[in-house]
Amino acid sequence: MAKQERDAEFTEYVASRSGWLRKVAYLLCGDWHRADDLVQETVTKLYVNWARAARVENRDGYARRVLVNTFLAEQRSPWWRRTVRTAVEPDTAAAGVDLDVSLDLRRALAALPPRQRVTVVLRYYCDLTIDQAAEALGCSSGNVKSQSSRALETLRSGLTARPTVVERMS
């Protein structure tokens, strides 16, 4: 494949999937700016390894795995520990969504340890089976089950029913 063809194919793929990659990255890290950085690093890695990525049957799975590995590697790096994050809310919100519930869920998701957060995102946002999530994470199916179970229990306990406005005024 000629370099121009390769670059055109890569550009087309990234243009069509960048929004999806950004959403997955946001769910992993909870910050739109950091999500953009994760996507940029993922796209760079994809470009370097495009010959390999072009040969796989499931390019989205390959790209998702690169994104997850990039996120997990960043979590282990000293840079991440030195960076102070602020409690800035997302830039935009979807119309017709209960923002309080959405923000509560995002906070609870952000409070999960990185491996549990990745497992929840892969299983319930990306809609992967247990075996597919295990393959994407490079671990056993049992590990995915236990991580999912712990994460869901933590999310349930963190998302206890909040009192309504009427109840607060009483």
Strand content range: under 5%
Radius of gyration: 18 Å
Class computed from helices, strands and strand pairing:
mainly alpha
Roughly what is the average pLDDT, rounded to an integer?
A: 83
The CATH class of the largest domain turns out to be Mainly Alpha
User: What is the helix content?
Assistant: over 70%
* Total strands: 0
Large-scale geometry: globular
Query: What's the architecture of the largest domain in CATH terms?
Result: Orthogonal Bundle
Distance between the termini: 71 Å
The largest sheet, given as strand count, sense and whether it forms a barrel, is: none
CATH fold label of the largest domain? Rna Polymerase Sigma Factor, Chain: A
Unreliable residue stretches: none
- Per DSSP, the total helix count is 10
CATH homologous superfamily identity of the largest domain: RNA polymerase sigma factor, region 2, helix turn helix motif
How many structurally independent domains?
2
Order of helices and strands: HHHHHHHHHH
Q: What does this entry show, briefly?
A:
The chain has 10 helices and no strands.
